[in-house]
Amino acid sequence: MTIEANDPRRETWIEVPLDSDFPIQNIPFGIIRTKTDKRPRVASRIGDKVIDLKRLFKEDFLSIKIPSGVYFSIDDFDTDSLNNMMRHGKEGTRALRDIISELFRKDGAIKNEELPHFKNLKDRLSSCLIDINEVEVLMPISIGDYTDFYSSEQHAFNVGCLFRDPENALLPNWKHIPVGYHGRSSSILPSGFNFKRPKGQKKPPTSSVPIFGETNLLDFELETAFFTYEGKPLGSSISTSEADEYIFGMALLNDWSARDIQGWEYVPLGPFLGKNFATHISCWIVTLDALEPFRTSGPEQSPEVQRYLEYTGDKHLDINLEVVIKPENGEENIVTRSNFKYMYWNMNQQLAHHTINGCNMRIGDCYGSGTISGPKEGEFGSMLEISWKGTKPFKMKDGSERKFINDYDTVIIRGFSEKDGVRIGFGEVKAKVLPSN
Ligand code: CA
């Protein structure tokens, strides 16, 4: 399948900085507002220019008839989440990406300036552009349900080694089931929203009784997230081959974890307050369509998986990932580099597993990949693994050390794919840890 908007030869008449995450082949979606117009609205982005899609709609550029017969309306763009727009499904968002790409590419519709509809085209299109510095980028999606998986083998192995035994690091179910749990969506936050170090119950090994206080073991988890369109009705399942049609796009996700709170509370029902105080996502949703050129094969799965988890074709994605710790007024330190292709279970398998019991997916539901650790040291996706439970502190450029995350540290995750001279990126997700009350 060819997606026109992905053509690597396409160039835009908008100036795009070298190494930008947002060339014309990306066309991500997000929600913005400005100082002069506080009303949130749907936008896209090329280089450092934000495209106001509400304005583009009002200028009559988005009156597209999708093959299914659905038209976009002002409610799809004059709104504070992408959910309305996502109602049109993959057909709709694909058509929208195509027309935006066509409008802003060199030698696109712009050459038809003699036609009445395209009169003063460039001026009218330019009036829809806003400099990124003048824009506040908001929470992109109204997330109903949030599920977090545990699908990186190296991460599961590392955690198994740290808390159990290297001989039996993976639990017996791990290679049969994409393990996951239901998280909380109310505390999923947009990049840049700082938060306080959480407090809770913990039981240090030195204490015979639990104590209460702020977490001493605050950690990040390097993850990606995907978001769904409307799924099937309750009682139906989405197969691995159907999954792509139900996935709108992806973001970077930091699944903050308080390891001491987590360690005391997780038996027997799993993560709770050690996880749900904050989860951050990057705010430009990169469509699965834009990531299609970066498909790659996954690891061989052995033992054989159940029939409903089998899949054909390349369903993994080559996305370079890195995590940075930046102390207050200090330099950035890259603490790990990993890649989304290292996942054992891919998104298609996760969605097939999630729905195999008939559980229904809805517009805007969010699915975390699970911590993405690569096979080598230097590629681990959490401080728990990087510092090997505090035994190997990370040395920072300023001479300090990190076993976990300090107050006033900013943690930044960045990610991008690159091929044929095209770089499709996510920007970043960042947040600063503030002291507890
Ligand atoms: Ca996680």
CATH top level of the largest domain is: Alpha Beta
Helix share bin: 10-25%
The unique ligands bound to this protein are:
calcium ion
What is the oligomer described by this structure?
single chain
Provide the CATH architecture of the largest domain: Alpha-Beta Complex
Q: If you compute it from the alpha carbons, what radius of gyration comes out, rounded to the nearest whole angstrom?
A: 22 Å
CATH topology of the largest domain: Fumarylacetoacetate hydrolase, domain 2
Instruction: Supply the number of helical segments.
Output: 10
CATH homologous superfamily placement of the largest domain: Fumarylacetoacetase-like, C-terminal domain
Give the count of structural domains: 2
Strand portion, in percent?
A: 25-35%
Major β-sheet annotation: 8 strands, mixed
End-to-end distance, in Å? Answer: 54 Å
How would the global form be characterised? Answer: globular
Category from helices, strands and their pairing: alpha+beta
The count of β-strands is: 26
